[in-house]
Structures are given as C-alpha cells and as structure tokens.
Design goal:
This protein is α/β, with parallel strands linked by helices and 412 residues long. The protein is 18% helix and 32% strand. It has seven helices and 27 strands. The strands form seven sheets. It has a seven-stranded mixed sheet, sandwiched between helices. Helix 1 packs across helix 6. The chain is elongated. Bound molecules: adenosine monophosphate and magnesium ion. The site of magnesium ion (MG) has 5 residues, from loops.
Length: 412
C-alpha cells in the first residue's frame, strides 16, 4: 500500500495544534522559595499595613517640624534631646515642642514627632542638638501603610513569581503560597545505538545526549524530568518503557528519535497503536519530523533524534507546552534584529534556525555562525547564544542580511 507523505505544517500551525490540547495544571501550596519562577494561583492581600508603623528613613533626630522653621547653619534651632530609639525598639520618650529624640533608620517614630532631620544636618553638644536646616513636615518619615495598606491585593493570580514577589510575600508573612504545579515530564530516548552516558562505547554505539539535554531544558523551564532511560528499536521495548512512564504519573511525554522514515522508526507505530497519533513534517530545519498525540490521556511529543534537532524542536514545541502547563500565558523569547555576517548560499523552503553568536557592535547587533550546522553537531549549539531565523521564502542568505535572532539565554 503506498504511504502518503505526512502533511507539512508551518511552525505556527504545528505549535498551535500542540498548544490547543495543553491546559494549565492545578495549583498546589508550596514553600515560599520553591515558588520562584512559578505562576501564582491565588490573589494575595496584605493582612497588615506595610510598613506596619511610621518609622524613620534616616539616622538622625525625630522632631516637630514647626521647631525647625527658619533654621540654618548660621541660625540653628536648638532642641533638647530627651531620648533615643533604635530599630527594633519602641521610643522611650515623646517629642514635645522644643525637644528631639535621637532616632535610627527603621525605628518607630516617637509620639509627637512629625519629621526627621538627618544626623548630617545636625550638631550635638551634650543634651542639646542644633538643627542646621529646616525640616518640612513628614521629611524622612515613612508612614504606616505607605508601601501597602492592609486589605490591599498586592499580587494577583497569574503573576510570575520573581525575586521581588518572593520579597513581598515574605514581608507579608507568607511562608507558603499557592502556585501552579510543576509539570512532570517523561523523557525517553530511543535507538539500538544509544547507550547510557557512563557505558563504554562499543562499536556502533553513541551516548545518550538527548535525554540529558532535554531533562536540562525541562528543569530550566520549571518542569520535573522523569527519566525513563533508553528504549531499543523493538515495539515491545518501546511499549513497555512508555507504559512505565505512564505509570509514574506524568503530564507530558517526550521521546527522542524513531520518528523519521527509517525501517526502525517505531515511535509513530507504537503511539498510533496504543494512543492517538498525528505525524507531521514541520517546515523547519533542523527538526522536520514531529510526532504528536496522546497516550493514556497524556500529551505526547515524539521529537527527532539528532541532538540539535531534538533541542530545537524542544525549544519550539515542548518549551511553550511546559510553560503553558505551568500557568504562564506568555513564553515568546525576546528576539533582536541582527546583521548576519555569514552568507548561506542555498537553502530549502523550510524555516532555518541557524546557530549563531549575537553581540552588540557599533550600535547594532551582529550575528555569526558558530560552526557547522549539521543537525547532529552539538558543538555549534554549545557556542551559540541565539538561533537566527531564516524565513521559508528565502532561497539563500547574502552576507550582511538582516535577520531575527531568538535569544536562547533570555526570557523565561
Ligand atoms: P533517528 O531519528 O532515530 O534515526 O535518530 C537520528 C539520529 O540521532 C541518529 O544518528 C541517532 O543515532 C541520533 N540519536 C538518536 N537518539 C539519540 C540520543 N538519545 N542521543 C544522541 N544521539 C541520538
Ligand atoms: Mg533511531
């Protein structure tokens, strides 16, 4: 029976189909620091004012502003020092007209005071302090609730928790917070030639790079890799390892290899037999073959086997899926327009992703190929900080052409 070629999709079409079946995972409560980089699943309101009490923004003297009117270096206002208050303590005196209280940054403002004069603008002598400038009412006073008022919703569901959100949650006394659960991502390598990374290299064998690069990508985007090892090119072995992965409660299944048109490319066959399978050629290079479907109710991405293809396919399809599952609503990487200094004499009608190093030079971005662009050549990806995107329509790329570069180390 003649086999009709699988449909050829644009990157956008393929991504849309993948993302259309991906839903955000349920929330869980997590210790504050484990929330970093994750998506908040609750609105957070302040139980108290922040700061909780009026306090000093400077080391100096708490005073009544009215006592300093007209004060200058030549005609200082002389006040009697009636007490002292340090951060963490409560004032031992009130500020009555004609008096001042020595105060440290963060200490509560004593009753009666309405301004702070920084120590640099004073001179002390014994129990007296000379105020050398006028202090307007409220100067260097941080009123209670100036940052956040009690009851205010400070953080909203859907926000990404960065270090500043962690700081705010800590200030609000939140030891735990509800965030979207991390996706558990099954990672299975395929191929009779693939051996574990600590195994001796027998003739015909190569080490399993893909499971580790993919696991690192999963970790980087906030997922939990579930390592399933290597399946040989036999239906029984592949099925058994997929079953094993499903039994471990995963949210997304990734395989590498076994999705092209070789005699032993069995991923599609197994996926079609025990799940639901779509197989596409995606108009991209590297990373043309892509199997996508469901198995045991779990979304399944059969990524290509070549070590660069698998990573670029992950970047293009698995990364957005993982981020969407994690509750993110934006995952586009930042791109820059850059001048590609190398020429590409010929290309096919696919979107090419070229491994480049991009840098700012004389007010513009320039990009250079980092080496050979073969889909198995990881060394040029190691040297790269970007992927230059060459549109489908371009038949070649002249040196100096302006292209978009995806910044691989920026963004989520
Ligand atoms: P395949 O699509 O299975 O034919 O694999 C394409 C190429 O990627 C072959 O040269 C494989 O040897 C290589 N490959 C497949 N899986 C891995 C892996 N886990 N690590 C490194 N290379 C791999
Ligand atoms: Mg293979």
């Amino acid at each position: 029976m003649p086999i009709s070629p699988p449909p050829m999709l644009s990157v956008e079409e393929a991504l849309e189909r993948v993302l259309s079946v991906i839903r955000p995972l349920p929330p869980e409560r997590t210790p504050l620091l484990d929330a970093l980089g994750r998506v908040l699943a609750e609105d957070v309101a302040a139980a108290e004012d922040l700061p909780p009490y009026a306090n000093s923004a400077m080391d100096g003297y708490a005073v009544q502003a009215a006592d300093t009117v007209g004060a200058s270096r030549d005609r200082p206002a002389r006040l009697r020092v009636v007490g002292m208050v340090a951060a963490g303590h409560v004032p031992d005196a009130e500020v009555a007209p004609g008096t001042a209280v020595r105060i440290m940054t963060g200490a509560p403002l004593p009753p009666g005071a309405d301004a702070v004069v920084p120590v640099e603008e004073t001179e002390t002598s014994g129990d007296w302090v000379d105020i050398l400038t006028e202090a307007p009412t409220g100067q260097y006073v941080r009123p209670a609730g100036e940052d956040v008022t009690a009851g205010e919703v400070v953080l909203r569901r859907g926000q990404v928790i960065r270090p500043q959100e962690v700081g705010m949650l800590a200030a609000l006394g939140r030891r735990e917070v509800a965030v979207v659960r991390r996706p558990r991502v099954a990672i299975l390598a395929t191929g009779d030639e693939v051996v574990e990374i600590d195994a001796p290299l027998a003739p015909g064998k190569i080490r399993n790079a893909n499971s580790y690069s993919n696991a690192a990508q999963v970790l980087r985007y906030g997922g939990q890799p579930v390592m399933l090892g290597i399946a040989g090119d036999r239906v029984e072995d592949l099925s058994a390892k997929i079953e094993l992965g499903l039994s471990r409660g995963v949210d997304l299944f990734l395989t590498s290899g076994g999705v092209s048109v070789g005699d032993f490319d069995l991923v599609k066959k197994v996926l079609a037999a025990s799940g639901e399978m779509h197989f596409w050629r995606v108009r991209m290079k590297p990373g043309k073959p892509l199997a996508f479907g469901h198995i045991g109710g779990v979304p399944f991405l059969g990524l290509p086997g070549n070590p660069v293809s698998v990573m670029v396919s992950f970047e293009t399809f698995a990364r957005p899926a993982i981020l969407k599952m994690s509750g993110h609503t934006a995952w586009e990487r930042p791109t820059v327009r850059a001048r590609l200094l190398d020429a590409i004499p010929r290309k096919d009608g696919r979107r090419h992703y070229l491994r480049v190093r991009v840098a700012a030079r004389n007010g513009e971005y320039v990009a250079r190929l980092t080496g050979g662009q073969g889909s198995g050549m990881l060394s040029s990806l190691v040297k790269a900080n970007g992927l230059a995107v060459i549109p489908e329509e371009w038949a070649q790329v002249p040196a100096g052409a302006e292209v978009s570069v995806i910044l691989l180390d920026e963004g989520l």
